[in-house]
Every structure is written in C-alpha cells, then in structure tokens.
Specification:
This protein is α/β, with parallel strands linked by helices. It contains four helices and five strands; from the N terminus they run βαβαββαβα. Strands 1-5-4-2-3 form a five-stranded parallel sheet.
C-alpha cells in the first residue's frame, strides 16, 4: 500500500509573509480552530470556520485574495486543506506552525 493515497504537499507560508499579506489586504485568512479557541485569541482579520463543520464550499468569496487556512499548530489546517483538495478547490495554503508560530514571532492577536 505504500505510495497509495499519497497527498500533494500543502503550500506553507510563515508568519512574516502572512502578516505582510494581511497588511496589503491580499489574503482571506480562515481560522479552522473551534469557536472557543478562536474566542481566546485570534489573528486580526481571521474568519472562524471550525474544522468540525468545515466545508470548502462555505468559504466566503475571497474577492481575488489568496485564501490561507490556519489553526493552532498546522495539523487541523492541513486536514482542512485535504478536504479542499478532495473538493477540487484551488485552496492549498496554510500558516506553517499555526497561531503558535504567529505568537512566537511577536505578531498581534485579538480577543481573549
């Protein structure tokens, strides 16, 4: 079974690149953590779409922006990207290290 079901690699961006995209208004950031986690602190401008009910077809129109998914550490956003791939969505990017990496970079968080 080796090699079967192998998924394509997800595109990862780092906190600095995401921060620049947010400042430029070129990204739609989707936080796939659960609502309670989102409420304790999230990246400014993020839209909460918990993985537990995630569907690529429910992502708002990005209006020409790049869609980037994000979670706590990267695992759940990777799972959401797998769902996007199965739905033949063009969404393939997430924040490497999630909000943990964002905070470690000293970038702003709102809420909580």
């Amino acid at each position: 079974m080796l090699g079967f079901g192998k998924r394509d690699a997800h595109r990862e961006i780092g906190p600095a690149e995401l921060h620049a995209m947010l400042k430029d208004g070129t990204v739609l950031l989707i936080d796939v953590r659960e609502a309670g986690e989102f409420a304790t602190g999230h990246i400014p401008g993020a839209v909460n779409m918990p993985l537990s009910g995630f569907s690529p077809r429910n992502i708002p129109d990005p209006e020409g922006r790049t869609v980037v998914l994000q979670c706590a550490g990267g695992r759940r956003s990777g799972q959401a990207l797998d769902q996007c791939a199965q739905a033949q969505s063009a969404i393939d990017t997430h924040l490497a290290g999630g909000i943990g990496a964002w905070k470690d970079a000293g970038l702003p968080v709102v809420g909580g």
